Amino acid sequence: MIAIHHPWVFTFGLLGNIISFMVFLAPVPTFIRICKKKSTEGFHSVPYVIAIFSCMLWIYYALLKGNTILLITINTAGIVIETIYIAIFITYAPKQAKISTLKLLMLLNFCGFCAIVLLCHYLAKGDARVQAFGWVCVAFSISVFAAPLSIMRKVIRTKSVEYMPFNLSLSLTLTAVIWFTYGMLKKDLYITLPNVGGFVFGVAQMILYGIYRKHDKGAQKQKLPEQVQVSTSAKHSSVEIHPINSPLSGAVTPTSQAAPEEIEVVVGIPENEEGKIVHEDLLHRLPVGPPCNVDAKKIIGGPGPASTQLVECAV
């Protein structure tokens, strides 16, 4: 079944199997996290159901076409891997998500696939059947390759590449190039055409990544000085509280009076080298110190640099 007299066909088919297999394994970390947390965390099962459907189409096309064992091997592996993903998703998904996934599997992967196979089988004969099913595979594959357009639109709108990993875009582009070459060497139009679209969309994603990756780095650099400024001002602001009759205040209160004890609150306001206040909003904040029953109405003195505020504690 393998064309030995075309070694390059086998070489590119084998490379396509290896890279496509790695792409199929890309969601493994996601499902490991789902198993650990026992929750799907808002993930959707639609991409995995569609991947199974695509693999089923290509396997049936390969059986009709003949001499395409490498196309069968990778899509069989894809069905097994994606089925495991779906099983894990159904295990930990909420009830409504489980029902939606099962409905989609029934409608698309069973009813839809059977309908396409029956129509092609009874409405076309011989080579016409292969051509009809080949165009079905082309149309569906192009629609799958075009699915990342929504992600690309989100990247442009948010100016962030958080939702579009570069490694995945690169892998999809390489896969499209290899399978395109495989189709060209086999002179199979139905394998070649969809991978042209895959290559175009993959390159577009990498270009967007190169453009908006710089924007992400610039945004991070702009945020960094603000964080440093806040932490610096927090270190330089200080509050001291000591009784009025202590040696630090320079005043003596007669001991014969039974009046409540007064304390002196000294608030240090951070200043820069030119003597200007760094943050004026700190002037209007209440001083922070040891807990005591302070009546806010008895605060004497106004805010200002190195100002002294007298607070009468009702203790």
TrEMBL record:
The chain crosses the membrane at residues 12-34, 46-63, 69-92, 104-124, 130-151, 163-185, 191-212. GO terms for molecular function: sugar transmembrane transporter activity. Keywords: Cell membrane, Membrane, Repeat, Sugar transport, Transmembrane, Transmembrane helix, Transport. Its main location: membrane. It is a multi-pass membrane protein. It is found in: Cell membrane. Pfam families: MtN3_slv (PF03083). GO terms for cellular component: plasma membrane. Mediates both low-affinity uptake and efflux of sugar across the membrane. Belongs to the SWEET sugar transporter family. This is Bidirectional sugar transporter SWEET. It comes from Carnegiea gigantea.
